[in-house]
Amino acid sequence: MGTLLSLAEKFVDSFRVRDVVYITSIQHRKSFNRNRGITMRRVFLKGMAALGIAALAAGSMMGSASAQSLLEKVEGGEPIRIGFANEIPFAYPGDDGSPKGFVNVITIGILKSMGYENIEPVQTEWGGLIPGLNANRFDIITGGMNILASRCENIAFSEPIATVGDAFIVAPGNPKGIGDYKSLVDNEAIMVTGAGYSNIEAAKAAGLAEDSIMQVPGPTEILAAVRAGRADAGAGTYFTMKQLADSSDGAVEVTDPGAMPEESFNWAGIGFRKNDQDFLDKFNAALKDYVGSEEMLAAVAEYGYDEGSLPGDKTTEWVCANR
Fold first, then answer.
1. Are 70-161+268-322 and 166-264 equal in CATH topology?
2. In the predicted model, is pLDDT for residue 292 greater than 90?
3. What is the CATH T-level fold of the domain 166-264, as seen in this structure?
4. Nearest to 269, CA basis, from 168, 121, 160, 175
């Protein structure tokens, strides 16, 4: 605003100086010109100030519009934007860009049961999901989003939709005998995982040093690092690591998730902004009836989700406090 006023002053002054030069030979009109210039200047500056106030008011109105809750948006006919990364089999884009993966299927099934079918898929990188949600680029985030205390500080989670165990991909024959996070430390192994994955916290808790953890954008890069020998183990959920091993033509194998300690098991949920609690309450009520139903299990069977993947009786409150 200060810059605008300065420019306005110079602009008005240019008119005042020009007028003074023009009538400089007419002595008795100097006072008139000076007063005229001052008057013009005041009028111009008042106009600029009024424009500034109008601009601030418009900005405030735009801010209020963007602050609409999700419930208000959908009741107004706007689509629900679902953000997800390329995380097979949790959530990923199909060839036509449509949302695939069992977490997307569950989320869309719940929304449909609530009467909402206007869905807009938005793909991003894993590390951009939570920041993008809070920046209002999405309304809901899916993927294999484990409910963790650190994440619960930043977003609100639905009740759990799946139990998720960890596993590694390793070279054929598992030459370093890697089966859990402690074995990474014992074997001085290099672990690769996705930026923002819960495996980072789990490995650090087991004593693995920061410089022994390689962070990459996602599953494709995890597989590439292990195949090339840049990392001894790739870490992720069992669902994802098994899919990578199955697609590698024998270049890597997946470890037994049962070898992992109980505390490494997690529960996945759907992420919402904290100020959308009213919508989340409705979503959780519908989730209670949908998750575990025959309809849901049939819809997600192709992704390897079965009754053993159901979340059990754990609540989001408990998981946020214990993970």
1. yes
2. yes
3. D-Maltodextrin-Binding Protein; domain 2 (3.40.190)
4. 160
